[in-house]
Amino acid sequence: MQTNAAALNSQVNSKKRNSSSLTDQLRSYLRHPGSGILALLTGLAAVLTFAVLIFLVGYILIKGIPYLTPGLFSFEYNSENVSLMPSLINTFIMTVLTLVIAAPIGIFAAIYLVEYAQKGNRLVKVIRITAETLSGIPSIVFGLFGMLFFVTALQWGMSLMAGTLVIMVLPLIMRTSEEALKAVPDSYREASFGLGAGKLRTIFTIVLPSAVPGILAGIILAIGRIIGETAALLYTSGTVAQVPDLMGSGRTLALHMYVLSSEGLHMNQASATAVVILVFVLVINWLSGKAAKRIAKG
């Protein structure tokens, strides 16, 4: 009985504190109208952002789910089923191939910039300016460069290898990894050095594990850009609806949706493809989040 009474009293006291805090906030807003207006605007911005997200996701699901038929997941594409399965496999191959090349280069470049390069070094400034410039270049420019260099000059032809988006996602991975490494407290490094660990061991056993969540956040953003890219792949990987080898032409999911919608004959299947892209991105983000938590826990 005493325990229940104490719990009831604590709930009543917490409600009083919440109500008093809300009252105090309203009074402070009346005394300072500018703060109240700013709080109202930020609240409206948050609600508007959430509403737009819910609307977009709901619209995609409503328009696409009714047309997710078994034929759409056939392994062989034809003009009747317009299957997305070859494009789904190509998207997975393109994502893995791009990350296998871009992620190590971007992470090691970030390690050099944070751990080894001297502050104020001109080379560091040039690298950062170059990365920021590459991040702002339209994807169609990357597509034209890939067509002229990989497809034509190197004679790779329209292929998945020519369509790898390494140049596009490399600056993103490098900059996010750099910020994640900078966020690791210097006390971690000093403690490791104090215990006798060397520079290399400190980086790989102390700094990198602590920066993994931030690095994975950049990789997740890179995955989203790879999956949603169309303009660059239109000139490099081609639009063939099949699962080729690395030197063969094949379309990704986003390119598959673009081709179907541009033809105007299979708009319903294009909407269903949008649902698959949405689920594909959500699954990858969920798996990456789980991996980040497991690595952070040790």
Helix content range: over 70%
Count the strands? 0
* Rg (C-alpha, Å): 25 Å
List low-confidence stretches.
1-8, 14-19
Overall shape: globular
SSE pattern, N- to C-terminal: HHHHHHHHHHH
Number of helices in the DSSP assignment:
11
| Gap between N and C termini | 44 Å
How much is the average pLDDT? Answer: 83
What would you note in describing this structure?
The chain is an all-alpha fold. The chain is built from 11 helices and no strands. Helix 8 (199-228) runs antiparallel to helix 11 (267-297) and helix 10 (253-263) runs antiparallel to helix 11. The model is unreliable at 1-8 and 14-19 (pLDDT under 50). 77% of the residues lie in helices and 0% in strands.
Question: In short, what is this structure?
Answer:
With 298 residues, the protein is an all-alpha fold.
Features:
298 residues; mainly alpha; 11 helices; 77% helix; disordered N terminus
Q: Would you spell out the secondary-structure blueprint of this structure?
A:
Layout: H1 2-31, H2 33-64, H3 85-116, H4 122-136, H5 139-153, H6 166-182, H7 186-194, H8 199-228, H9 231-236, H10 253-263, H11 267-297
Helix pairs in contact: 1-2, 2-11, 3-6, 3-8, 3-10, 4-6, 6-8, 7-8, 8-11, 10-11
